[in-house]
């Protein structure tokens, strides 16, 4: 998705069980990914003032570390409309117009990074002024990129999905991305699961994981958001 810099997202574990969140995510729902303990996560980079209860609406994987402090795309925390445009958007002018039109003043991002730094999961939440504005925002964001390989997410109406593999920037690395966008009421949720690799070890989009996260995020928003 174009809202953040390349390299957002991933986990490689199936059969996740999502539990009530705790700790620095201020209520975000978390999921254990495996039995191995992870090293302490680095502190989050500075984020704007609190964005109400949006942190408690985000679903994030447990067992993965937080991102690199000082890297805006790897921050976990709230954002305002302006701070999103200034630090997270890859298309500032276009995104600002979409956010203004949707009456979106705040949002929340969660980011998790595997210990080998190849696998990432990002969830971004946007609160629009109404359900119809949320759908407009979803479609506007989605239209910024070409999407050619949708995958099904049973039980989640209106989900926009795509899975792609391609060269990531000038690094020559191959990136496999499975992404989705959903709306529930006035909320828009964008989920990206990605993994980097090489031509010799070409990664594959983790559609199964992305589908799991999308379903759980939909359930979370359905039961918690207004």
TrEMBL record:
Residues 1-28 form the signal peptide. The keyword Signal applies. Keywords: Signal. The keyword Signal applies. This is LppX_LprAFG lipoprotein. It comes from Kribbella ginsengisoli.
